[in-house]
Amino acid sequence: MRQPNLSWAPILFVAALAATVASGGVIGGDLPWLVPLGAVVASGRVPDSVAAATAPTAGWHDALAGAQLLLWTVYHHLGGRGLVGLQALAAAVGFGATAVGARRQSTAGSALLVCTIVLLGSASAVLVARLSLFSLALFPLLVLLVQEDGRALGRRIWLAVPLLALWANLHGMVLAGLALLGVYLVLTRARREPLLVAGVLGSSVLAVFATPELWQTPLYYRDVFENVAAARAVGLWAPLGLGPFDLLYVVAAIALFALSRGRLQAWEWVVCVALAADSIRTARVGLFLLFVLAYPAARSLRLRAPNPVVLASVGCCFVALALGLVVVSRPTSDTALARRAAATHEVVLADPLLGEWVALYGGRIWVGNPIDAFRKRDQRLYLDWTAGDASGRAAVDHARLVLVQPTSPAGKAAAGDPRLERLASSRNAVLYRVRTL
């Protein structure tokens, strides 16, 4: 009897495992704020300010209208579990693409091992749903495209142009993809095919401009890179530290490099060194390094895979489990106080994530995400307040309610602030009213 072809089993297993891990995660900061802006996009207008904020934001350059519309649509129909489901889908696409590429350059067993290491090292990006979920899916697809082009030079590299155009409307890390593509083309194909390289790179740059801001798209990136949080290296801009997720990333990166035995192609060396250096400064960049290192690591191994029937069966079980986890997930279970604060329609000063939920529920905040939309002086005052510094005390004067996590620096400072009257508390939030003098 002819055996069924189950060459896809390792890919299903990896994609389903990543989706299962992601579906058990939570919604983090830098995601809920896009939903109310998506409602504006759905009405037929690209936002030029943050409507939920009372601090001035006029003239903001919004290049991510595509992400806002998509997230609003998902949340509008499925609620918070829809955002978790989108994270699970992004993880499945990203890790599935890496499994496809690693399998084409090595054995199924090697692909399984390196993808598992990448999953462990990128746990923070997989377990916490943020706006970067779009790059979690699209960066590995670009790496796969580049790797496949390197194996057999051809015209498929032009597919990078529409991929980057899509990516540019979803997440700012498209610049990392553009840089990777440029390094690959210059070091691999420029000498033999200069016209093709010039055409692809030129078209790719134009693709990054294919946002609602068009020629003003660079102004969006200017504001992002020059915001005060980036200058202070806090929040999403925090450097590599000694936390468990950071240590997992470091161990995974070292393991993948050791498995590769240093047998990286020239363009892979350049990209990996750049990403490694950047990840020390901004820890979240490390995710991309692991996806690139997966290929030379897989090429250096020749491991047999488990029985494909077993892999396919377990993969199907993971698919069912991921769907079940998404359906029963309650990622917004502790946002009752944010909803309560929003219902008052009074100005709320809130920790970043809680402030995003206040905005999503239709409330008003003073300053929050996206931080780069605000004036520098308001950014500095707000970040001083979130850090619990005395220099941020004046931020309270801009609000009628204060909503904080009790263990955050702002929450600890609020607990001892005589200007605040405690109204209510939950497991992860405390709501205060600002006393009138």
What percent of residues adopt helix (DSSP H or I)? 55-70%
Strand order of the largest sheet: 4-3-5-7-6
The number of domains is 2
Low-confidence stretches: none
Q: How far apart lie the N and C ends?
A: 86 Å
Shape: globular
Mean pLDDT: 93
How many runs of DSSP E, i.e. beta strands?
7
Rg to the nearest angstrom?
23 Å
Largest sheet: 5 strands, mixed
Individual helix count: 20
**Class of secondary structure makeup:** mainly alpha
Summarize this structure briefly.
This protein has 20 helices and seven strands. By secondary structure, it is mostly helical. The protein has a five-stranded mixed beta sheet with strand order 4-3-5-7-6, with helices on both faces. A two-stranded parallel ribbon has the order 1-2.
Description:
This protein has 437 residues and is mainly α. The protein folds into two domains: 9-30 and 79-324, no CATH class; 336-434. It is built from 20 helices and seven strands. The strands form two sheets. Strands 4-3-5-7-6 form a five-stranded mixed β-sheet, sandwiched between helices. Strands 1-2 form a two-stranded parallel ribbon. Strand 3, helix 18 (352-360) and strand 4 form a beta-alpha-beta unit. Helix 7 (133-151) packs parallel to helix 15.
